[in-house]
Write a structure and sequence with these properties.
This protein is of the alpha+beta class. The chain has 7 helices and 13 strands.
């Protein structure tokens, strides 16, 4: 079920969904100029190719497209969708694709206390200049979740890690049933894969992380690190990624599917 352009007339565009040609229209003529780029967006391809058979898709209307350099970053569209009984289903989508979140647990070498690393940065959609979150980043079209997780850890925290030291909490919890957690499934396609990274550090190194300014300035990132006790995380960060990671971690440890200290077992590395 590969997305294709069908030559119905000079302006008609369609995509293949459930082996049927679904018409795609644009609210503004300028958006149609980005049609070819839109077809290269992995998230849009994955949505068209993977949407459940229970949905009957009659049409898609593209309302806005945001570019990130040479590629499409965000698409906002509404779709004409019903169930198999013809009952309409709310179908407004903000498409941005998947992301990765990194849950960092640092054990102090001197007193064995455990800490986690959060980022504080401006989040305009919330209206807040400083929001505490797990380090996170959008996935590019490579689909390399572990590689992007390691890259974002370096950019947002300064910590250099090897891919084999990252443990996929979402895969361990859900297997292949779900691709990750859905932070806002009512309006956005985004799902987040949550990775665990654990390390031991001296008190001096932990203190050096506190308040460190990080981020990629060229991308407009203005990030400051905040180190808190892992026991305070549940009431310190209103971030669904952080709370979900903590929930998965604590349940996996409680069920002895993940050791409480040290790195994951050799077979998971």
């Amino acid at each position: 079920r590969r997305i294709s352009i069908m030559g119905l007339d000079s302006t008609a565009k369609t995509v293949k969904i459930h082996d049927k040609d679904v018409p795609v229209t644009f609210e503004h003529a300028a958006l149609e100029e980005l049609w070819e780029k839109m077809l290269q967006m992995k998230a849009f391809n994955d949505w068209c190719n993977g949407i459940d058979e229970d949905f009957v898709v009659a049409g898609i209307t593209i309302q806005s497209i945001d570019e990130f350099g040479p590629r499409v970053g965000f698409i906002k569209f509404k779709a004409d969708i019903t169930d198999k009984n013809g009952i309409a289903i709310p179908s407004i989508v903000f498409m941005r694709g998947p992301c990765v979140g990194m849950f960092i647990i640092i054990t102090c070498e001197e007193d064995k206390r455990q800490y986690t690393v959060l980022t504080a940065q401006p989040r305009v959609p919330t209206g807040r200049f400083s929001v505490l979150e797990l380090p996170a980043g959008m996935l590019d079209d490579s689909g390399d979740f572990i590689g992007i997780a390691a890259k974002e850890l370096k950019e947002e925290t300064g910590l250099e890690v090897r891919a084999k030291d990252l443990y996929d909490l979402t895969e361990k919890a859900f297997g292949s049933q779900f691709p990750g957690i859905y932070p806002s499934a009512g309006g956005c396609d985004e799902f987040c894969r949550l990775f665990l990274y654990r390390a031991k550090m001296s008190r001096e190194k932990i203190n050096a992380l506190q308040g460190r300014c990080t981020g990629v300035l060229e991308e407009g990132e203005k990030i400051k690190l905040k180190i808190i006790s892992i026991h305070e995380l549940w009431r310190s960060a209103p971030d669904v990624k952080a709370l979900s990671a903590l929930c998965l971690y604590e349940n996996l440890v409680a069920r002895r599917e993940l050791p409480a200290d040290g790195l994951p077992p050799p077979e998971t590395q």
